[in-house]
Amino acid sequence: MIETLIPPEACASEAFGPDGSAVLYPEEAALVAAATNERREEFTTVRGCARRALAALGLPPAPVLPGKRNVPRWPAGVVGSMTHCSGYRAAVLARDTDLMAVGIDAEPHRPLPRGVLEAIALREELAWARTPAAGAAPFHRDRLLFSAKEAVYKTWYPLVGTELEFEDALISFREDGPGGTPAAGPGDAPAAGPRTGTFRARVLRPGTAPDGHPVTAFTGRWTAHRGLVATAITVPARRPAAAADTEGGTVGGVGHPGR
């Protein structure tokens, strides 16, 4: 599922249940020694996903330990992001010569708990999230908004190194029509199967990337499928002759990065 949201230079691995073959390094196991069985399973399985993604990049397995703000510490030359929720774990990695940053998030496709939408949404986002979506099946815009804000933060913090609050990014969404074409109106929204689309996050408190360029916006992709909502942002690495705008086709994440 997550692989449909990322460019070919990124490698993804996902699991829809416990991975009995995943094994922790001693230093990883120490972090969850006193945790519940559920927490140990999700921690272990998502690291199994990360190591499969490393292998797909042609790199050896390595421990994935949390750093500052719980951001995963990847091997030198690698950028990536992990996510987990009930029934799903995933990791997306890339070489830093291809991508500058990655942020992914997955959530159960059901309404947010009471009061959460009002706490995370700006006025324009709130109006969009409360507008019923077209289509035969229920579509929870509030959960999609939450996931996109999580993906924004997971991309932003490792890239810029400063905090970002939910209200610091204004997100707008577009849904693909049948066959992956942009929907011209509510009647073109797919009634069955995956719902997919793009989103744009305008950062209201701009920061600076390590190469000195401003980070003012991110673009990403989303999908709603199999009872889940997933979002992904990838930031292309800047080549010496590249344009000075850090808002590329998938440049550039609001939430908690490490998971």
Short recap of the structure:
This protein is of the alpha+beta class and 259 residues long. The chain has helices spanning 26-29, 37-56, 116-120, 123-129, 141-160; strands spanning 11-15, 65-66, 72-73, 78-85, 88-95, 99-108, 169-175, 195-208, 214-225, 228-236.
How would the blueprint of this fold be written?
Layout: E1 11-15, H1 26-29, H2 37-56, E2 65-66, E3 72-73, E4 78-85, E5 88-95, E6 99-108, H3 116-120, H4 123-129, H5 141-160, E7 169-175, E8 195-208, E9 214-225, E10 228-236
Antiparallel strand pairs: 1-5, 2-3, 4-5, 6-10, 7-8, 8-9, 9-10
Explain the overall architecture.
This protein is α+β, with helices and mostly antiparallel strands and 259 residues long. The protein has one domain. The protein is 22% helix and 30% strand. Strands 6-10-9-8-7 form a 5-stranded antiparallel sheet, with helices on one face. It is globular and about 50 Å long. The two termini are 19 Å apart. Mean pLDDT is 88; it is low at 179-191 and 242-259.
Give the overall shape, derived from the CA principal axes.
globular
Number of E strands: 10
Order of helices and strands: EHHEEEEEHHHEEEE
| Largest beta-sheet details | 5 strands, antiparallel
Strand-residue proportion = 25-35%
Task: Look at the structure and give the mean pLDDT.
Answer: 88
Tell me the helix content: 10-25%
What's the end-to-end separation, in Å?
A: 19 Å
Q: From the alpha-carbon coordinates, what is the Rg to the nearest angstrom?
A: 18 Å
Structural class: alpha+beta
Sheet with most strands: strand arrangement: 6-10-9-8-7
Poorly predicted sequence stretches spanning 5 or more consecutive residues = 179-191, 242-259
In total, the number of domains comes to 1
DSSP helix count? 5
